[in-house]
Amino acid sequence: MKTKLSISIVLAILGTTAYTTAQAYDGDWKVGRIYYRQVCTSCHVAKTEKAIAPTSRTKAEWTAYLQADKHAKGKDSVKQYISQQYRASIKATNKAAEKFADVPDQQLMEDIKAFVIKGAKDGDSPASCS
Amino acid sequence: MSTENGSAWLAGFKADYETIFVEDWSPYLGGILLVLVIIGLMINGLFWGVFGGVKFWGDWFNNLIGLGPLLGVPQELDSFLMHRMSLMNIMLVLGAFCAALLSRQFLPRRPPKLEYIWAALGGCLLGIGAALAGGCTTGGFFNPILHASPAGWAMWAGLLLGAAIGLKLLMWTLENIEWGMVAPPPIRLPEGVLRIYPLLGLAVVVGVLFWATQWYGSSNTQLAARAVIVLAGFAIGFIMHRSRLCFARSFREPFMTAEGDMTKAVILALTIGMVVSSLLFQKKIIDPYVAIPATFWIGSLLGGLIFGIGMIFAGGCASGSLWRMGEGHAKLWVTIFFFSWSGSIASALLKKFKITSIDESNVESFEKTAVGFQAYLPDMLGGWGWTYLISGSILLVWYLLVRYNESTEKFTVI
User: Fold this and answer.
1) ipTM, two decimals
2) CA-based angle A108:A113:A115, to the nearest 5?
């Protein structure tokens, strides 16, 4: 009885797994994390002495901010600081810019978006165990 | 005749009730059901964790007594029901409480005075160990193994060693300390109270289902997502209580009595969980790195050693203490208090002294700390073949040793 139940449960798990295999996710938050910390945050800290944590905005606010593409209250664009051109200009002094020098702009933007959405105030990424 | 028939069908339901809600489940069934819930969480982009929530309670306490700012604990904390792992822990206790009511096993239990000392000491060691290992037996051992990280195996080694040392130390105290060994008289509840336990348990089930349904249907996306945690945490507590599933016992018993059922149940759960979760990672349903602590291998091994000693004195690990809290054990309430308090202090201090703080200058895709890094076997070994082989081999060796010990008692230390 117990063996049959156990087998049924294992089959149910495998069935659920197979059912959900069609899903996929966009943007590599780990790449976004490195760029955000080492390029965005380090520059903010150097110029304003203040880091902007992903938790400072909600998912909707981050999405709207990145879509509006207005950096420093509209003085310039966010994309500018993600661009290959910008990365090339700082790669001599910035390890992250050097590492991701050849990543297409849009791909890197998706990675950064994935990171800030994951860590947003209302983000539903799992909390760290520690 | 009709009365006899009526009694017969009622007896049938009673028999099923006894089988499901009163008699203990096999730990093997418990292990498989637990993995099923964990996989359900992973499909929803979540994972099971305990220490994060326990530490969060300690953060609250430290802020309450004014220690938080000194330690660098964030001053603005979520509420107890909004913090994911705190909510999951609360639901785990509630699930176990409900199972204890349905089985009429709930009872406020007071241990001898000395046990409170061991609860405090053990709880403190649990907090320090978990802070070093990046998690308890759930987040530092079970989850990382499911997430194909050798950090789980490093903590496993530490836990084994810690359990053996802890047992030796506990035996020494039994031989040399006589104070506080007398148990207070047991609390006896009136028969009428025990009779309504199942109804109270049913009321808890209905209440939790109503709560989860309300949140799931909420326009607030955060609440809707928390509904999954409400149900999963409750199910985990229920399953752990019914099957008496206990990670501490799986490490302790082979050294103490040579009994290996709980260990074999954990091995079975890990085997099934590892294979199914590997499919989720390969199909990119969830990113494995979300549940891998940056502690391989020093933090995991050392943390496991300290945690292993602590869980022997405390009488349970994190999840085991929580479900026993739900069953009414006063000792485990003390354990969890000191676990959360010391966990918060140790985590804050270890970060303050740059021991477990993340290396911000690292440009690798995995996190690094002074006590290790986020190790993911498929990335380290270039694929899943070696990952399956190594993890499967360790599980097989563990099983063989436990089975051999059941027959020979070669590894018992008392």
Assistant:
1) 0.70
2) 100
Residue A68 vs residues A44, A72, A74, B57: alpha-carbon distances, Å: 19, 12, 9, 39
By the 8 A CB rule, do B294 and B374 touch? yes
Give the bridge partners for B109, in sequence order.
B329
Residues 144-173, chain B, touching A (beta carbon < 8 A):
none
Angle at B197 between CA B195 and CA B200, to 5 degrees: 130
Return the amino acid letter for B92: L
Phi, psi of B28 (to 5 degrees): -65, -45
Asked if B293 contacts B135 with a C-beta cutoff of 8 angstroms, the reply is: yes
Burial letters B102-114, b for 16+ CB under 10 A, else e: bbbbbeebbbeeb
Q: Give yes or no for A93 touching B (CB within 8 A).
A: no
- B202-256, pLDDT tens digit by residue? 999 999 999 999 999 999 888 888 999 999 999 999 999 999 999 999 999 999 9
Question: By mean pLDDT, which of A71-85, B44-58, B79-93 is the weakest?
Answer: A71-85
> Which residues does chain B have within 8 Å of residue A95's beta carbon, measured at their own beta carbons?
361, 363
**Separation of alpha carbons B356 and B349, rounded Å:** 9
Q: Do B47 and A95 count as a contact with CB atoms less than 8 A apart?
A: no
Name the band, by pLDDT with cuts 50, 70 and 90, for residue A22. very low
Q: Is the pLDDT of residue B6 over 90?
A: no
Q: State both tokens at A36.
A: 């955000």
Alpha-carbon separation of residue A85 from A71, B67, B372 (angstroms): 17, 48, 35
pLDDT of res. A128:
54
